[in-house]
Amino acid sequence: MQQDYNxxxxxxxxxxxxxxxRPGMYIGTLGDGSSIDDGIYILLKEVMDNSIDEFKMNxxxxxxxxxxxxxxxxxxxxxxxxxxxxxxxxxxxxxxxxKFESDKTKKVFKNSIGMNGVGIKAVTALSSRFVVSSYRDGxxxxxxxxxxxxxxxxxxxxxxENGTFIFFEPDDTKFLNYHFHDDNLxxxxxxxxxxxxxxxxxxxxxxxxSHRGLEDLFQDRMTSDALYPIIHxxxxxxxxxxxxxxxxxxxxKVLNEHYATDMHHVxxxxxxxxxxxxxxxxxxxxxxxxxxxxxHDYYMGNQPLHVADMGSFRQIDENWALDSLYVYYLDVxxxxxxxxxxxxxxxxxKALNGFYAVDAKCVYYKNNIVKGADPASFAVLKxxxxxxxxxxxxxxxxxxxxxxxxxxxxxxxxxxxxxNAFHTDGKTVYNPELMAMPVGTDFxxxxxxxxxRNWYADSKHVYYENRLLPGANPKTFVIFPSHxxxxxxxxxxxxxxxxxxxxxxxxxxxxxxxxxxxASFVCGYDFVVEKSFAFDKSRYYEGTPNPRIEKLRQGKYxxxx
Length: 561
Fold this sequence. Notes:
The chain is built from 9 helices and 45 strands. By secondary structure, it is an alpha+beta fold. Helix 1 (15-21) packs across helix 5 and helix 3 packs across helix 5 (119-125). Strands 37, 38, 39, 40, 41, 42, 43, 44 and 45 form a 9-stranded mixed beta sheet that branches. Strand 19 (320-322) and strand 20 form a beta hairpin. Among the domains are: 15-208, Histidine kinase-like ATPase, C-terminal domain (Heat Shock Protein 90), CATH 3.30.565.10; 478-560, no CATH class.
């Protein structure tokens, strides 16, 4: 029977609805984050490109990128800030942009990366939670969206610098089992720095800046010596660099967009895979496989798995593989630890999600065995990647809590995700990592002191993780700024992960420090020697003196905000 076709079959979608309905038209492959071409990195690129455009207009020379748990990202620039009267339209209405002007005398952007008025709208539409704040001249306007639907819009006074802040969490109903991989993020930020000379990008604790642009790119990426100095031609709208190296091109062969070989080496992008055998090397075969291999090992990117039994090795999905002896969690950062996890029963092994797996004998979280967990009753909490429950207790990652039934608890801030939520059974309060808080913690007022940091406060007390800070005053408690020291400048635009204070005391995590001068106390990280430091006018508490730190201590560095 032929289906009736009439006017009622015709639908008109709004701009954001169309993006959610056909995301591939806007960001290409959705993926899970294992490839740098996957959609979650395109979302980040759309946000970064707008901040880069501000830099190109000499409006802000630094961008801060923070990644939480490989799932959520925030980007803060210090440009002009999105005009607040059009903030909602700029992030939610396709074909809305300040970059359409063709009259050069009226253009507020030049050589802009984004030109079609769509990019950031795709981020809004494809995020389970999207927050945008525009800081302009003493006021901040903040809008919150969930899956493209506006949930909140508020304007209030601020003393923060002008610029734009964007937070987004990709929608896990679109990007299944996704994870932002550190190597892909670092590659993106490094490349941004090469092509934007003088721009400082901070990715969590790592900083990227280039003073010579393409010349730095060549020096960092060449795998053999140049035959002559790099020739670099640069103008207002052109930037070209080239040289030649002494490699023999006759044996060089490109295998796909990521892998190449010659008679001596195997490359992943521009990195040599140490120990890989070019004569037997085979690239990934598509499908679920994201692994290459040679005759003696498998590789994820340029990271070897150190497979114990090649004959029994099999890949389960994008996140898990095993042989007859070990389980392999397919994350380059985890693999770099070279920590092998013995398999309980390879015949019954089953992946539950991107973080948890079970077999007849064990429960696994990444490359850890979850001690005491019952594989027969273990299940991942609905909608929560890092939380699970069996018949005995609830788990956060690989650690068992004292909670027996998650659904029997009262929750606070769950709308912001369980990673920001607090819980209680009426007697005990639990923090976002399901640690039991001290007796007397006030569930009604408990909150995070700072996003991405481990201090909490209620109306009477301050806590580090689940430990009480003795004598801390929650009304005056703040976290020290972290000073990032480079060879020629210092920045302090992030909060420290170890040091905090109130009006009379300084704390190292949960420990009270004695006789510290709060007014002169400075802490941070020296990128030159890759060590943390802390000092006041009298002495060092962490790290040792060097010319850079002493210059900072004497107030001779101009701190870049």
